[in-house]
Amino acid sequence: MRKFIFSAAITVSAHTIVEAETPEEALEIAESRGAALYFNGSGERPEEVWCVEEADGEPTDITHLEDMDEDIEDEEEVET
């Protein structure tokens, strides 16, 4: 059996917390932030980044990147 590598875009939900004087100022701040995986112990803070907690989207724009060179065999490798 052969292996194939694919890439895809997946939409995820994210949240951030912004303190500002107006919604417009808050939007500007939010738009300047990067995204990070957010989980217990990650060290990321929703006041600093867009926090992604889970991949809840479906893959789209699936692209075949490459075929892997070797076939997968059902045989076990012999250790030497």
Please indicate the percent range of residues in DSSP E strands (runs of 2 or more): 35-45%
User: Uncertain runs with pLDDT below 50, 5 residues or more?
Assistant: none
Across the major sheet, the strand order is 2-4-3
Count up the helices: 1
Distance between the termini: 25 Å
Structure classification: mainly beta
- Note the overall shape: elongated
Query: For the CA atoms, what is the radius of gyration?
Result: 21 Å
Overall residue-averaged pLDDT value: 87
- How many strands in all? 5
SSE order, one letter for each helix or strand: EEHEEE
Query: What characterizes the major β-sheet?
Result: 3 strands, mixed
Query: Helix fraction?
Result: 10-25%
Protein architecture, described:
The protein has 80 residues and is mostly beta strands. It is 11% helix and 38% strand. The chain contains one helix and five strands. It has one helix spanning 23-31; strands at residues 2-10, 14-15, 35-37, 50-52, 59-71. Strands 2-4-3 form a three-stranded mixed β-sheet, with no helix packed on it. The longest helix has 9 residues, at 23-31. The two termini are 25 Å apart. The mean pLDDT is 87.
